[in-house]
Amino acid sequence: MSVIINAVIVEDSRLARNELKELIKKYPQIVISGEAENVDEGYKLIQEHRPDLLFLDINMPEKDGFELLEMLEEVPITVFTTAFDEYAIKSFEYNALDYLLKPINEKRFALAIEKVEVKLAEKSEVASAPQEKLTGNSQIFIKDGEKCWLVKIGDISHFEIVGNYTRVFFKDEKPMLYKSLNQVEEKLPEQHFFRANRQQIINTNFIADVVPWFNGKLKLTMRNGAEVEVSRRQSYLFKDRMSL
Known about the structure:
By secondary structure, the protein is an alpha/beta fold. About 30% of the residues lie in helices and about 30% in strands. It has two domains: about 5-130, Rossmann fold, CATH 3.40.50.2300; about 140-240, CATH 2.40.50.1020. The protein contains seven helices and 15 strands. The strands form four sheets. Strands 2-1-3-4-5 form a five-stranded parallel sheet, with helices on both faces. The radius of gyration is 20 Å and the shape is elongated. The N and C termini lie far apart (about 55 Å).
């Protein structure tokens, strides 16, 4: 029996949404949790339903599909559906699984669904495997473009979301790590790292200064000069943790 795939459609054209739903009817394992005609509605749907799969148009009024992905902390498996081929390269920079040109060919759609099922199976295997935490002395390998680093976790000052990926700050370097911030957080040693806000995780050993900020927030200055605003909720947790 196939695993149920929870899907959301974000597409401004009603006709295109209906055509996509007709294609999906042949795949009973895909359940459409909702559909939206613009980015803001799509964002709300994704936050509410936490879908496994997102069918996403690129060209939409006011905000485009890329902007929606940048708004998300956790990005579902994404299949772009668009009438324009010039966005293909950019779509894969956003870690899209596939890119379907309208009108969508049935055989091409079938290949996309196969990719989705393989990707979900891989994610399930990773989720079921025991996850070991790193320590401050653990080293991680980072490759960004042609450059490579072997970095000790304790030498990293902070992590920051960039689209679907994470920028890593250490010494004078700031390469991209091709994992989400949530994936990174799961492996980090809690005694050294703290989630300051939705976008950033900091190494508390690198904090140089802490000052009260607006609306009950805190502002941290790191030893490398970076400034990090701690959200109001996380500020309470930070004070408790650091005994402030």
